[in-house]
Amino acid sequence: MSDAPITIRPAVSEDAAALLSIYAPYILHTAITYEYVVPTMEEFAGRIRHVLERYPYLAAEMGGKIVGYAYASAYGVRAAYGWTAETSIYVDQNCKGLGIGKALYQTLEACLAAQGVRTLVANIAWPEEGDPYLTRDSAAFHEHMGYERVGTLRYMGCKFGRWYHLAVMEKYLGPHNMDPAPILPFSAVRDKLFPGG
Fold first, then answer.
1. Do strands 148-159 and 119-126 pair parallel, antiparallel, or not at all (unpaired)?
2. Cα gap 134→128, rounded to integer Å
3. Strand order in the sheet with 6-10
4. Nearest CA to 89 among 8, 172, 175?
5. pLDDT given at position 3
6. Is the CB of residue 157 less than 8 Å from the CB of residue 164?
7. Could you give the CA distance from residue 114 to residue 112 in angstroms, rounded to a whole number?
8. Which residues in 15-83 belong to E strands, given as ranges?
9. Beta strand 84-91 pairing with 119-126
């Protein structure tokens, strides 16, 4: 599979089972996500539909198999946050190092830029020191993708009987000019970015 090309496409709720099979090990065996319980397939499908009401939710395929996904969500509920989005990404743990994360994030950023989003934020679980449930690889990946670490929120999550911090990282997609145009929904840019998809 490592020689197969990576294809990025918008996810649909019918992908829930495949995406959940990627996400579940992160819940059960890592502190990368602060979620404790694996959601049901129905709940997860609902999450996909909810994101797609406004933001991109993307799936990566290699050799016909879904091997990763990425999506954006609202950073905050207040109107002034409208041009900021929070990003999330998960790659099949058996498929790391193949460029899947990079391909997903490059496509996600292209979608968000087309929508008019200006600032991306990634809140990344961060261990105080060496930890069996959490490495610092995610922060290193985001730094490689052009994110800058701008702060640390300390003791934000407790999982596996340990306290973890959040590394706050951000990236700018466009200029922060006065009176930016309203954000477009993902549906308004989807056909241009994924013709025939």
1. unpaired
2. 10
3. 6-10, 57-62, 65-74, 84-91, 119-126, 162-172, 148-159
4. 8
5. 78
6. yes
7. 5
8. 57-62, 65-74
9. parallel
Amino acid at position 51, single letter:
V
The reported pLDDT for the residue numbered 119 is 98
What is the Cα–Cα distance from 164 to 161, expressed in whole angstroms? 10
As a whole number of angstroms, the distance between CA 159 and CA 168 comes to: 19
Q: What is residue 130's predicted lDDT score, i.e. its pLDDT?
A: 85
Q: From first to last of its 197 residues, what are the pLDDT tens digits of the chain?
A: 667 899 999 999 999 999 999 999 999 999 999 999 999 999 999 999 999 999 999 999 999 999 999 999 999 999 999 999 999 999 999 999 999 999 999 999 999 999 999 999 999 999 998 899 999 999 999 999 999 999 999 999 999 999 999 999 999 999 999 999 999 999 999 999 999 76
How many whole angstroms separate alpha carbon 61 and alpha carbon 31? 25
Give all strands (DSSP E) within the chain, no chain letters. 6-10, 57-62, 65-74, 84-91, 119-126, 148-159, 162-172
Give the distance from CA 111 to its chain's centroid. 13
Contact indicator for 143, 149 with CB cutoff of 8 Å: yes
Q: Which domains does the chain have, with CATH numbers?
A: 6-173 (3.40.630.30)
Q: List 162's β-bridge partners, or say none.
A: 159
Helices (H) and strands (E) in the chain, counts: 5, 7
